[in-house]
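Notes from the 1:1 (GR / supervisor)

We went over the backlog. Supervisor wanted to see one worked example end to end before approving the batch request, so GR pasted a single chain during the call. The sequence is below; no edits were made to it. Supervisor asked that the structure be written out right there so they could see what the output format looks like.
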Amino acid sequence: MTTPDVVRSLWPGAPTPHLFGDGLLSPDPGTVPASVPGAAPAEPVPEPAAPDVHPAQFTGLPGQTAAFSPELARRDIPILHRTVNGHPLVWLDNGATTQKPRQVIEALAGFYGSANSNIHRGAHTMAREATEAYEAGRAAVARFLGAPSPDDIVFVRGTTEAINLVAQSWGRAHLGPGDDILVPVLEHHSNIVPWQLLAQQTRARVVPVPLGPDGQIDLTAYDDLLSMRTQLVALSQASNVLGTVPPVREMTALAHRYGAKVLVDGAQAVAHFPVDVQDLDADFYVFSGHKLFAPTGIGALYAKPDILREMAPWQGGGNMIESVDFTRTTYAPVPHLLEAGTGHISGVVGLLAALNWLTSFDRDAIAAYETSLMAYAQQALATVPGLDLLGSAPDRIAVLTFTLAGHDPSEIAAWLDRDGIAIRAGHHCAQPALAHYGLASAARASLALYNTSEEVDKLVASLQQLQQQAA
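Structure output shown during the call:
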């Protein structure tokens, strides 16, 4: 059964949906559910025009048939049409979580309203339908990552659980005293702490890879730290606090020369540019759905097939077995071996809808737009007295972490919230990266495909007012 067939079976009484390729529901464009607090009519979508250096006029790349503009994305996101403290919401906290399109929200409601069932081994119709939708989600993730097969994809709660799974299932079997795990200083705590726990259990070492002043990984130091003791390199494809995009492919090739495996944390990358795990030659790749316009509590682990087949069960229970008695238990093959218990079925349905929504746009056009918007934001923020942006790596995603002279980051965030502007303040679960700049906390504005130059202007104006009232 194709994915559209699965969708139609899940929503037999629903209005005929628009379908993105083999995707899930995409209701009539240009509408906003009336139940959304503060909802307003969606902005009209302009006719495509030639791209301009100013992001406000961006509508796509020349010669491409798949149109993209931030307006096209915004009209699908109900929450962006609400108000906060009397102001239109400006959501600049995408590094923490992204907002969800109608297609995802309605897919979740449709599943629970028409097709809720447990999966695998069920003999009844709804169990088969739910199983088909769940496995369609696995196939969609494999396509999205460029993985060879859906069997290379394990569903998890998110990036953190995926990394812990690799640490406990693969790491405990392959690391021992004297082995090294190389981890760049820019990593999220989720890509540091699990390796520290593993090192304590196995008597291996976690070796930090330093950063340069611009927030890039010191590749000379990385090359020097690699040795035959290196069993694993764990690095993010994009930093959540500096936006740095390291040369993952090249770093992976260097690690493989020493026989080391490489885990790539794609949590911050997958929403911003296309990913091909085979081109990266990553041994493991992990991401979270909620950073990708999908629900919370769902994510995925990719591992190379030969590595995946070596991994022992991490948790025991239902779904991961073939047969159980008190003398001998036999296990299901991967990926089910690593998916004990009832999975987050609706989360997979929502993830499938999110992937289909995102890939209905031209991904290269999205990346180009976000680069344009980031450049605009950097120039605009430079006009705020006392504002200092962290990191200046030439290859980066649209993450703008900053300090403002005379103001604590939490004070900055509270001030902006009065104007309906949502940013993040604190250590961003990346304390070593901030410590590199002598900081314990900072403010962060993180952009996504649905943000606009007008929203950047509102951020800058509010920060300028904060500085003026403090003068």
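Supervisor's comment: The chain is about 35% helix and 15% strand.
Batch request approved.
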